[in-house]
Amino acid sequence: MAGKIFPSADAALEGVTFDGMTLMSGGFGLSGNPENLIAALKRNGVKQMTVVSNNCGADGFGLWTLLNNGQIKKMIASYVGENKLFERLYLDGTLELELNPQGTLAERIRAGGAGIPAFFTPSGVGTIAAEGKPTEKFDGKLYVRETWLRADLSIVKAWKADPEGNLVFRKTARNFNPVMATAGKITIAEVEHIVDAGEIDGDAVHTPGIFVDRIIQGVGYEKRIENRTTRPRPV
């Protein structure tokens, strides 16, 4: 280990996991998933986790492996689709689920990182997403109060990092990763490339290193596509 850089995903998880913890895991669908850290969490065996993520992987891959291994007690997510196991465990009462409108989920995480304990949004008003939550009118329109989300551990996937933990995400893999990096008590980033200090232009940094505690060099990325759709090229 050198500074923030750890030799493996397993080493980076040492001392930061515990049963009953809250975990944030970056990604949208299967884009930008911290594949190495998810696999290490399965080996780690931590149980009874509350997991905050847009979805819970897809059949046979990603966070699905932790769900299938009985390590997740509750999901805080915005999408159940593409995951028959997620659907079945929720419907039979095995898995707790707090379903959020997608924008609300993103803002709850951002608020957690920014130190904002609550905010009002029109999303979900009049639906089950607003049941039991305070509402208030602003300029004649009804809004529901939502609270921040924070985690004991955030795991994120980035394209590049320098030794200080400054991160650059690539295209759609940026998704939930930057906000989750700010909302964890401990944040571990797995990256495709670790570059020397000074190689990342300051204006290109998406997540400053102050939010990142540990870094690993990721390997063997599958980067699966959930639903590949193609069309013939024009003649």
Describe the protein in words.
The structure is a single chain. The chain is an alpha/beta fold and 235 residues long. The protein has a domain of 150 residues: Glutaconate Coenzyme A-transferase (3-Layer(aba) Sandwich). Helix content is 20%, strand content 26%. It has 6 helices and 11 strands. Strands 1, 2, 3, 4, 8, 9, 10 and 11 form an 8-stranded mixed sheet that branches. A 3-stranded antiparallel sheet has the order 5-7-6. Strand 3, helix 4 and strand 4 form a beta-alpha-beta unit. The longest helix has 13 residues. The protein is globular. The termini are far apart. The mean pLDDT is 95.
Query: In terms of structural class, how would the helical and strand content be classed?
Result: alpha/beta
Based on DSSP secondary structure assignment, what is the total number of beta strands? 11
Beta percentage is 25-35%
| Number of H- or I-type helical stretches | 6
Characteristic terms for this protein:
Glutaconate Coenzyme A-transferase; 8-stranded mixed β-sheet; alpha/beta; 6 helices; 3-stranded antiparallel β-sheet; 235 residues
Topology (elements, then pairings):
Elements: H1 9-13, E1 22-25, H2 35-44, E2 49-52, H3 64-68, E3 72-77, H4 84-91, E4 96-99, H5 102-114, E5 118-121, E6 135-138, E7 141-147, E8 151-161, E9 167-168, H6 177-182, E10 184-194, E11 214-217
Parallel strand pairs: 1-2, 1-8, 2-3, 3-4, 8-10, 10-11
Antiparallel strand pairs: 5-7, 6-7, 8-9
